[in-house]
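Database export, one record per block. Field names are fixed; values are copied verbatim from the stored entry.
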Amino acid sequence: MMKRAIVLAIVALFAVGAGAMAVTYSTTLYVGQNLVAPPGVPFNPDPPAVFLDNGGNPIPIMFALTRWDAALQSYEPYNPFGGNYGGVLLGDGAWLPVDTQVVWQYDGAPDGLPDTGGTMTDMWISLPKAGLTLIGHPFNHNVVFANCLMTDGTQTITMDAARTAGWTDALIFGWDGVGQSYMNIGIDPWWLPDLEAYRGYWMTTFQDNLALIIPAGP
């Protein structure tokens, strides 16, 4: 939890400075399961403050909003009375079922996480343990998955090279909220190519302590 606490502190400091540049993010949540991710840093990362409808009303999330703890390889539901869910972070995906179609809306920093000069920066997502990680696309624009990179801390390589090296699969899996079914996203041309805003993705890795680098550009 220390890492998440540090990130939350950084996000809070950034949000104070970026208050004048607030962006309202908005997308539709469909009846059934939704695999969601914020494309911009929420100014208040507390889950009840992030998951609001377009009228400012809370979307029910207690014991429904569920993230994946990659280090423990287990689910962590949002529990306002305890637990280790933490805040809503850029680069995290989460499951959220809803009973009726609703527009999810929240205020956050500009697309991605700009540096102090306002330039959008690449996003590093930790893949701490071999197995599954539920990542979230961190941008409000599409990025071609094949343009991402991976690193083990000593070398940074392309997704194709990471597959050849045995670090990861060629595929990750998103979720179609309309059809309530998985989508295959891949680095090969016969799969859907793009990471999309507001979507989370399941990624499989085969060794510990890797990171996915999603470029700020397409």
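Remark 1: Residues 2-108 form one domain.
Remark 2: DSSP finds three helices and 17 strands in the chain.
End of record.
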